[in-house]
Design goal:
This protein has about 325 residues and is an alpha/beta fold. The chain contains 12 helices and 14 strands. The chain binds adenosine-5'-triphosphate (ATP) and magnesium ion. Adenosine-5'-triphosphate binds next to strand 2 and helix 2.
Length: about 325
Amino acid sequence: MVEYKAYTKEKRAMSMVSTEHLYKEFGRIMAVKDVSFEVELSEIVGFLGPNGAGKTTTMKMLTGYLPPTAGTARIAGHDIIDEPLEARRHMGYMPENVPLYDDMRVYEYLYYRAKLKGLFGKSVRQQVGYVMDRCGLDSKRKSMIHTLSKGYRQRVGLADALLGEPELLILDEPTNGLDPNQIRQIRELIRSLAEEHTVILSTHILSEVEMICNKVIIIDNGEIKAADTPTNLTGGLRAAGRVSLEYKGELEGVMRDLSAIPSVKKIIFEGTLPGGWQRLVVRAEPGTDTREKAAAVIRRYDYPLRHVYRHIPSLEDVFVEMTRHD
Ligand SMILES: Nc1ncnc2c1ncn2[C@@H]1O[C@H](COP(=O)(O)OP(=O)(O)OP(=O)(O)O)[C@@H](O)[C@H]1O
Ligand SMILES: [Mg+2]
């Protein structure tokens, strides 16, 4: 840790993770293609992509479990190929399927893992105590691992990743298979860990990413499609300038007047709803808000207006736009 601080002083850019043109080939499958990204100190990065996109493969390369076919990565300045042990010392990894030893008790397992990670003497006991406390495992310390619920198994996986208090946590689908209550608990745990650690996590739960991540990397088919803050990603979407309206009256004049509003690109008639309400969608430049102007148009005609809504794109919209293949 001391060493990392020294490193950060030397380099003004505090990249916790830096990957350069990473490739991974499995026979004829190119699972990861030319992946380059940076993760700065203290960022919480959501690593998103459809099934088979290359998330786990990328994480395994970062953690040294898989050698890249080409390219490289540095963790806290240490090259994963030239200095694998140094690089590993700076990170904790929670794999997709946490491989736990079912016939061990929670504390035995964590002791065993701590020793495997090179901790010794008093620090083993101290670290195991700390991670069990941090992950809410105290009440389960003597439970046999095979008796644990899925949520507690995930906690053991997280506790394992935390041993040695690495600066960087790489978590592969930490909430996979959990119920909504457990998801919330693990999310809170990750959020609290993020105060002291840089975190990269993969997940399919986009609302989760919106809640806890300050950066999103979208990967599809082995390639990075986007890397930015959630706000920048959603703000740039076509859907960001969409307003929908429901009013009762004639269509033609209203559609013409709405089209005349600056920044409006297109008016779409979505249909007549029960009761004679006309539903229109106003498509305008991303980042604009045409609600007031659109409502004023309807008011000029003195038509009843019951609905004006500005569509706020979610990360899900971004995800779908970037990864659909139709
Ligand atoms: N050991 C392997 N041998 C051959 N192909 C593999 C291997 N591991 C992964 N792949 C392939 O590489 C591609 C990327 O897989 P990866 O597991 O990285 O995807 P993922 O984004 O983690 O998906 P998921 O969301 O399902 O976990 C897939 O086509 C997968 O079948
Ligand atoms: Mg995976």
